[in-house]
Amino acid sequence: MNKLASCFLQHGAPSAQSFKSFHVQRSPSLHSLERRSVSMPRSRTADHAATAANATIGPHANTQGADVTVVSGTSFDFERYLSAKARAVHDALDLALQGLPCPEVLSQSMRYSVLAGGKRVCPVVAIAACELVGGPVAAAVPVACAFEMIHTASLIHDDMPYMDDGALRLGRPSNHVAFGKPTALLAGDALLALAFEHVARGCAGAGVPADRALRAIVELGSAAGVGGIAAGQVADMASEGAPSGSVSLAALEYIHVHKMARLVEAAAVSGAVVGGGADGEVERIRRYAHFLGLLHQVVDDLLDVTGTPEQLGKMTGKDAAASKATYPRLMGMEGTRAYMGELLAKAEAELDGFDAARVAPLRHLARFMAYRQH
């Protein structure tokens, strides 16, 4: 899984001080974005938070290029951590997709996309959140796999011609190009259903109490349906072709909070829940993951402008061609980078007070998400 780990670690992280920030006023509820009031005055608070974070978790390169972080005097090797978790999740997904009672072409289509790799943000967040509250990795792996199935299903559907019409995913033909549109559609549907079956069976097998497993299933369902991806995708498609300036920042955030941000949030919450986290811990992790997921999308929008197909493994410039609302289109490049700094500072602030060693993976993941180049 070194290739998978290198997907995260190919590029070093510059100083968080390079970001300027502005403040986005938010309603108390993370799910009430359509009522959000948004303004963009300069904020020194986020700059200060990012600077403080940089002082405590700066990357230290060695001659082998390994990414080792020092947190409160404790060494943490993010590459090794990521590689180990990615391998565990990959092996568990491979096992879950073996011997499926369905036609071989459907099984092949599902495996083609799920086992293709990628950043594995949701699985890593789920496992790291479980460990943060003192839970065992075994409790989080079924949850991690289920969220990766959901995420993969959403990508298969997003790439299809009647959605985002993407012919390339992770440097190879999208599922519908490789297997045909009907099979790809059904592969996405099958993964969606399998995710719920897998988390239910897996949690039971790992000895997770039934009430915790049920809470994780509720999070999974909300993130996949009307409280998440489905709602966000409909709003996203409705915004395509809208005249410049007609889609507000609040409307754009509604789209992305209900897509990637909600999925990352639910994965983190589910990991913390099955790990036995207290309610206060779970809610702080929820807020962290909300900002992390939104940060992921902001960077994606930026890379669609600045990246290349070779760099990203998918076609670029599609958002502009479809006249889609994006952060660079609404805020400009400088404003988008400033917002990245704001989100990074807010995500890391939610981790303050947790055990320094246990929180290191989530701190480092937030930093990577802000500075990634693919």
From TrEMBL:
<dbReference type="InterPro" id="IPR008949">
    <property type="entry name" value="Isoprenoid_synthase_dom_sf"/>
</dbReference>
<dbReference type="GO" id="GO:0005737">
    <property type="term" value="C:cytoplasm"/>
</dbReference>
<comment type="pathway">
    <text>Isoprenoid biosynthesis.</text>
</comment>
<keyword id="KW-0808">Transferase</keyword>
<dbReference type="InterPro" id="IPR000092">
    <property type="entry name" value="Polyprenyl_synt"/>
</dbReference>
<keyword id="KW-0414">Isoprene biosynthesis</keyword>
<keyword id="KW-0479">Metal-binding</keyword>
<comment type="similarity">
    <text>Belongs to the FPP/GGPP synthase family.</text>
</comment>
<dbReference type="GO" id="GO:0008299">
    <property type="term" value="P:isoprenoid biosynthetic process"/>
</dbReference>
<dbReference type="Pfam" id="PF00348">
    <property type="entry name" value="polyprenyl_synt"/>
</dbReference>
<protein>
    <recommendedName>
        <fullName>Geranylgeranyl diphosphate synthase</fullName>
    </recommendedName>
</protein>
<dbReference type="GO" id="GO:0004659">
    <property type="term" value="F:prenyltransferase activity"/>
</dbReference>
<keyword id="KW-0460">Magnesium</keyword>
<dbReference type="InterPro" id="IPR053378">
    <property type="entry name" value="Prenyl_diphosphate_synthase"/>
</dbReference>
<dbReference type="GO" id="GO:0046872">
    <property type="term" value="F:metal ion binding"/>
</dbReference>
